[in-house]
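thought: fold this chain, then report.
action: predict
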Amino acid sequence: MVKLVPGKPIQTKTAQIVVDPGIPPGRYRLTLVVIDDSGSESRPAVRTIEISRRL
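observation:
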């Protein structure tokens, strides 16, 4: 489980992460950069997600 910290990168070898369920509701901007085996980086893919309170 990953705790998201603004400005702190998360490195993983898998294509998904499980996020700490305690993250407060709100809008969050995520940036994904993929690094291949030779060290080449992709262009950043930026997405905004919204987490809402569970009803």
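thought: worth noting. Residues 33 and 43 are 6 Å apart (CA to CA).
final: tokens above.
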